[in-house]
Amino acid sequence: MRPTEQIIFASLRDDILLLFTERWGVDLPMKFSIPERPVDRVDYAVVLAPEAVSATRSDADRLHFMLAVTDLVAGYGKRPLARLEALEVKAGEAAVLTGPSGAGKTTLLLAIAGLADRLSGHIAIGDEDVSALDARSRDKHRGRHIGLIFQDLHLIPGLSTIDNLMLAPYASGAPADRDRATALLNRLGLGDRRRAAADTLSRGEAQRAAIARATLLHPQLILADEPTASLDDEACEAVLELLVEVTQTSGAALLIATHDSRVKARIGHVAVAESAA
Amino acid sequence: MMALRLIWASIYRKPLGWAFHVLSLALGVAVVIALIAIDNGLDTRFQRDLGGVDLVISGKGSPLQIILSSIFQIDQPTGNIPISVLDRLKRNMMVKDAVPISLGDNIGGYRIVGTSPDYAKLYDAKLAAGRWWDKPLEAVLGAEVAREEHLKVGDMFVGEHGLARGGEKHTATPYHVVGVLAPTGAVADRLALTDISSVWKVHEHENAEHDAAVAAETSVGNEPPDTYPAVGQEVTAVLVRYRSAMGALMLPRLFKNVPNTQTAVPAMEMARLNTLLGTGTDVLRAFGIGLLALSALGFFVALVSAVQERRRELALLRSLGGSPWLLLRLILLEAVLLGLTGGILGLALGRIAAAVAARAVAHGGGPLIALPPIGRIDALIVGAAVLIALLAALLPAFSAYRLRPAQVLRS
């Protein structure tokens, strides 16, 4: 395939590479990388013709965005608290969910994660319409495909740094890959702190550990709630840089709920939460 | 493994609080386990010491005292009876065995018992070394006596007057050790056995004094002469085994009206002893069960508070994909592990306490309690401790199950 080939997008489904192109004719095999995961070698590919692309355009669009939210009203029980009209975030990209205090940014973030109640609207993550999932499947989906980062970080004192990372596979039931956790900690500069108790980490180290835990299982979506609150400019920039870098390299979508103007200025792509109370 | 680490992290945050709750559970278990072990040990020991004796005849006094002194060798005898009683018993068709015992001296606190070799047969005692006595002042030592007093076949020892240490030494009449018994697990281990005539021989000079006293009293007519049997022809007690059940009906009656004699039925006295001791045991057992109930309450309060304090941690697990069942299982597992720790610790403490108590009883001159090996009943009590912890955890675990993570995480 020539570098100039016009590919609308590519996706791996059941280990078959789908290439959505404007015209016929793609040379295979080739070294290729798509947002869901890096592909060293393509064994099978289905190249869709322009007509097929046209026919599956809406499906393609849905798949194209790692996170797609439409007309979401979220709350607790039957009580609506927050509304988000529309939000689409592509793989490897970041967006900011902002709004005035009390608009329900965190509630929307938690609703996208399946932790708060979705009262109406649709949420699609990757190729999964999570709106249609029951509670148990939502838990499973969240464990495997969503990484959450909280303002309070929520590292468990008494557990080592690496064990705090290993909570992700434990809770989600995913295979526990300690080597990957070690590699991730090394990459984030925490290699020599992996056995340190979480309560002995500095704020910066703890922040990196929380990011590492959120990205350990190759999530499709990373949700961060006020990750830069109470950080000075330098620390804020460092955290954002790390989040963006991790997002780009992992091919996930990143959504940050914040009213921090520094984040909005850095990320650019902004959606506004509205109160629905 | 991660569940265990999480539980450890929870304990790590409040080690003293958890240690207190585990220890209170352990103490409850320990009390119950120690009581049962001692109770069973005493039962076994008493049954073994009874040696199938159906009736004891001794001097006038408390039947319970007679059983304690003549069978268990832990109390003062009530008094001597004429040897004619022994002869009469031996001639009786209903009597299978009639074994005399004569007490009066000790070696290092261990009683020297004048008897016949039939005494050893009550406990199936076998010689580990040497031979049985064939003349006065030859002794066969119980296994514990030989071990503690460092005596072996061929050694000599001197008895002390009385049943406890510190009495006058009978240096003129030393004993010659001719045999050592193999351990029996019964009272015979703690005795030095000798021929009944040895006791008479050792006390010959006392007998002479006794004769003089009798002569003096009878001369002034204070006492009828037949209350003083001929000295040198007395025994402390006779242990009787019936040939048939008919003996139980007839023999006690036959000796009811013999002057200065008292019959005692071990089974009846043991039942009375059990009633006397049973009240105390019941109180202690109720105390142990009360401790267990209290520790269950402590566990409940601690787990409710732990779930409350760990709401953010539990919510985090939900945010990482954990189901409500995962949280429920985690709290229950924590309770089971802490209950198991308390149970096992209680088992160890209870067994140590029982062993210490048994040793203290033995050192105090009481019976050496044969503690039963750790078995099913101990496992059941440890299981009960786990069950108590599990029951105490049900409500907290359910509250973890019902946790609304979003409400916790957004606060």
Descriptive report:
The complex is a heterodimer of chains A (277) and B (411). With 277 residues, chain A is an alpha/beta fold. Helix content of chain A is 34%, strand content 29%. Chain A is built from 9 helices and 15 strands. Chain A has helices at residues 50-55, 57-64, 105-112, 135-145, 161-172, 178-187, 203-215, 233-250, 261-267; strands at residues 7-13, 16-21, 32-33, 38-39, 45-48, 65-76, 79-90, 94-98, 117-125, 128-129, 146-149, 221-225, 253-257, 270-272, 274-275. In chain A, the strands form 4 sheets. Chain A has a 5-stranded antiparallel beta sheet with strand order 10-9-6-7-15. In chain A, strand 12, helix 8 (233-250) and strand 13 (253-257) form a beta-alpha-beta unit. The longest helix of chain A has 18 residues, at 233-250. Chain B has 14 helices and 13 strands. Chain B has helices spanning 2-13, 15-50, 63-70, 83-91, 118-122, 143-148, 196-202, 204-220, 246-254, 266-309, 311-319, 324-363, 376-401, 405-410, and strands spanning 55-59, 81-82, 95-107, 110-115, 127-130, 138-141, 156-157, 160-161, 175-181, 191-195, 234-235, 237-242, 261-264. In chain B, the strands form 2 sheets. In chain B, strands 1, 3, 4, 5, 6, 7, 8, 9, 10, 12 and 13 form an 11-stranded mixed beta sheet that branches. A two-stranded antiparallel sheet of chain B has the order 2-11. In chain B, a hairpin with a 2-residue loop joins strand 3 (95-107) and strand 4. In chain B, helix 2 packs antiparallel against helix 10 and helix 2 (15-50) runs antiparallel to helix 13 (376-401). Chain B is elongated and about 105 Å long. The relative contact order of chain B is 0.18. At the A-B interface, helix 3, helix 4 and helix 5 of A face helix 1, helix 11 and helix 14 of B.
